[in-house]
Amino acid sequence: MNRIWNIVPVAAALYLLTACGNTNVQTRNTTDTLNATSGKQFSDWIATLKVLEKPLELYGMPDITGKTGPFDSHPYKSVTAGVLSAGKHYYAVLFQCTTQHSATEVVTFLVTYTPDGRQIATREVGMEKDISESGSHTYVRKWPVMENDSIAEIREAWDVIEGEDEGDMETKARIKFIRIAWNGEIVSIPQETETFEAFAARFPSMKLPLTISKPDNALLKRISMFTPYFNFEEYIYYDSIKVYHYGKVASTAKQTILLYATDELGQEELEQLPSVLAVAYDAGGKETDRLLLQGGTATEGYSRGADGAVIDMDGTIHVKKTETDAGLDGLIPVPGETVQQQVCRLNAIGRFMQETKSIAYTFSSLDAASLKGEFDERRKYPEQVSWKDSICQLVFSIPWERSIYVALHAYDVAGEQLVELFTATQDGKPLDHYIVYSTLKKTPPAKAITIAGLEPVAETPQAENALLFNGVVTITFDHKTMHISKEGKFTE
């Protein structure tokens, strides 16, 4: 008898998670009854369950441990449940179960019943599990997303860490779709089977040169979530995914670029602004690369995005990339903005090769008033001071062939203060100094500036599609703009 509490072995579960994209996997239904229940008993029990609102929120389901009706034979530590939907021929119930093994291991089932309590079908639609074996650690998560009573997105994500370094984590995700049929059967929804040419024909052709602006999605057609030609993986954690046909450009016999627009997307503290995305395809409709042209993401204290994109007659893309950071990671807050002017060209294998022409750093708090306020706070709340006498902290790095690191050094001894920016090599050795703020009277500047510099810095690997940076770097603060040379020298 197929019981819904039979858990798929770990190896098999991982096998099912090896494909990315929105591939659908068929699982079998069962007509077995979990526990013999009379029609009257079932109707009394189902009436006690909360009817779940849409969009679906699992965390609002009430605890029914000890009162699980036809689910009484379960082996779980605790169970919450709610009625997902009801039709003339079925009731659909969600059960979220915590395992006896761990309070953090959760499995969620969708079970359908006839009005008299006979089980029609079951499907595992949610799971949270940590798996550690032979030097690797995998965190697997699966959860349902529903905006109506019959169709569900089953989203899956897994993080794999090889060894002890979490920086080596690989993340993958996918979306499957199921629906509850009129008779209560749970059916997988297959992907569409149209050709790539037919799919691309849905996009309006755009004339070049083209300036990209914020999309008006009310005028655009939404793409099908069942298409095999768009990977929704990067949007999997947003509450509702809405992607639109924006346009088609640079179509050749071997390469096609399709432009997609997205709505504003939200997920707890993370927000994605309305965006335009360029996706490159080969002749067979396989995605080869994607590039953000407009919009971006934002969370508390940090944002990154793109705007001002222009596509030339030959398909060359000019775009401005912007990153803002509240600078809260350092012991001295250094909020700033980084602007990169990039030129991107599609290469022979369909990758957007990105050449950065210039990088401009702007810092709003490196002025006399702000820095004086920072030192005043140190004197006002000495018990909260986290550094003594002096401190060095990395601010940013410049990705030249030999990377240059720009850091801040603060000095506060015997009532005399100094703040400087300095450049350094990867081993932390200072190359040049620029004094931003000073109240020195008795102390010579040469004694206050840093000699030791930074601790050695780990080299940041360059993205595979990034060309070697050979452009201009400027830094602006306190109404001054300085240039930084490849040798690490500050010049006005």
Describe the protein's architecture and organization.
With 492 residues, the protein is mostly beta strands. It folds into 3 domains: 10-188, no CATH class; 196-325, no CATH class; 363-491, no CATH class. The protein has 5 helices and 26 strands. The protein has helices spanning 10-16, 39-46, 196-200, 368-380, 445-448; strands at residues 78-86, 91-98, 106-113, 119-133, 136-146, 151-162, 170-180, 186-188, 210-211, 243-249, 255-262, 265-267, 270-272, 275-282, 287-299, 302-311, 317-325, 336-346, 352-363, 390-398, 404-413, 416-424, 430-438, 472-477, 480-484, 490-491. Strands 9, 10, 11, 12, 13, 14, 15, 16, 17, 18, 19, 24, 25 and 26 form a 14-stranded mixed sheet that branches. The chain has an 8-stranded antiparallel sheet with strand order 1-2-3-4-5-6-7-8, with no helix packed on it. A hairpin with a 2-residue loop joins strand 24 and strand 25 (480-484). The longest helix is centred in the C-terminal third of the chain and has 13 residues, at 368-380. Mean pLDDT is 85; it is low at 1-36.
Q: Tally the structural domains.
A: 3
> What integer value in Å does the Rg equal?
29 Å
Structural class: mainly beta
Q: Shape from CA axes?
A: globular
Query: Span from first to last CA?
Result: 79 Å
Helix content: under 10%
Biggest sheet architecture: 14 strands, mixed
> Roughly what fraction of the amino acids lie in strands?
35-45%
Name the poorly predicted regions: 1-36
Number of helices: 5
- Mean residue pLDDT: 85
Q: How many β-strands, per DSSP?
A: 26
